[in-house]
C-alpha cells in the first residue's frame, strides 16, 4: 500500500520547526551541527551514576583497609605487652603486682619501650594489667578499657586472631568495657 506512493526527492519538502525539530539539531547525515555539540542530559546522568558507583566502591575498600590496619596494630600492641609480662614471669617466677588502670607495673617497665603502657591503645582508652581480675580462665591478663568500646572492631580482632567468640578463647570481653587478653603460661 505505502509502496504505491512515490517519495519526493531529498530536500524538496519544506521543513518547519514545529513539525520536525530533530532535523534542525542534526545536519544532513544525522550528525549534530557545530553549534549543537555537547552532551545530552541523559548522557550526563549516566556519567554521574557511573562515577557515584565507582566512588562507593573505592570508599568501601579504603574503609576496610583502615579497620584492618587498626586490628593489626592492636594485635601488635597486645603481643608487645605479652612479651614484657611473660619475660618478667620467666625471670622472677611470679607475675607483676596489680596497678591502677593506665599505670604500668614498675616491675615490667624495663621490658616495655618508653610510654608503651601509658600511650592510648588502638582499641580503647587505656591499658590495665590484671593478675587476678577478669574471666577466670584468663587470669592473669592484659586488658584494654574503653568507656564506649568499638564492638565492631573488638569483634573483628577476635575473628582474626582468636576463635571469633568474645566470650571464649584468649581474647574475651569482660563486662561491657574490658577486652581481656590472657597471658598465662
Provide a descriptive summary of the structure in words.
With 185 residues, the chain is of the alpha+beta class. It contains 3 helices and 4 strands; from the N terminus they run ααββαββ. Strands 1-2-4-3 form a 4-stranded antiparallel β-sheet, covered by helices on one side. α2 packs across α3. The N and C termini lie far apart (98 Å). Residues 16-25 have low confidence and may be disordered.
Write the layout of secondary structure elements.
Elements: H1 21-25, H2 41-92, E1 126-130, E2 141-145, H3 151-161, E3 171-174, E4 178-182
Antiparallel strand pairs: 1-2, 2-4, 3-4
Helix pairs in contact: 2-3
Q: What oligomeric state do these chains adopt?
A: single chain
Which regions contain 5 or more consecutive residues with pLDDT less than 50? 16-25
Helical fraction equals 25-40%
Q: Indicate the radius of gyration in whole angstroms.
A: 35 Å
Distinctive features:
185 residues, alpha+beta, 4-stranded antiparallel beta sheet, 3 helices, 10% strand, rod-shaped
Describe the structure concisely.
This protein has 185 residues and is of the alpha+beta class.
Amino acid at each position: 500500500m505505502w509502496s504505491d506512493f512515490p517519495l519526493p526527492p531529498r530536500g524538496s519538502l519544506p521543513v518547519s520547526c514545529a513539525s520536525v525539530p530533530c532535523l534542525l539539531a542534526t545536519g544532513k547525515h544525522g550528525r549534530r551541527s557545530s553549534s549543537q555539540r555537547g552532551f545530552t542530559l541523559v548522557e550526563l546522568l549516566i556519567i554521574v551514576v557511573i562515577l557515584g558507583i565507582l566512588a562507593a566502591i573505592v570508599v568501601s575498600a579504603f574503609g576496610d583497609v583502615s579497620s584492618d590496619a587498626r586490628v593489626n596494630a592492636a594485635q601488635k600492641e597486645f603481643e608487645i605487652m605479652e612479651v614484657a609480662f611473660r619475660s618478667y614471669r620467666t625471670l622472677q617466677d611470679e607475675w607483676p603486682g596489680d596497678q591502677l588502670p593506665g599505670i604500668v607495673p614498675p616491675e615490667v617497665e624495663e621490658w616495655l619501650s618508653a610510654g608503651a603502657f601509658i600511650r592510648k591503645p588502638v582499641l580503647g582508652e587505656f591499658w590495665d594489667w590484671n593478675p587476678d581480675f577478669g574471666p577466670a580462665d584468663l587470669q592473669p591478663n592484659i586488658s584494654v578499657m574503653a568507656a564506649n568500646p568499638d564492638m565492631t572492631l573488638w569483634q573483628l580482632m577476635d575473628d582474626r586472631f582468636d576463635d571469633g567468640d568474645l566470650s571464649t578463647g584468649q581474647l574475651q570481653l569482660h563486662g561491657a568495657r574490658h577486652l581481656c587478653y590472657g597471658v598465662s603460661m
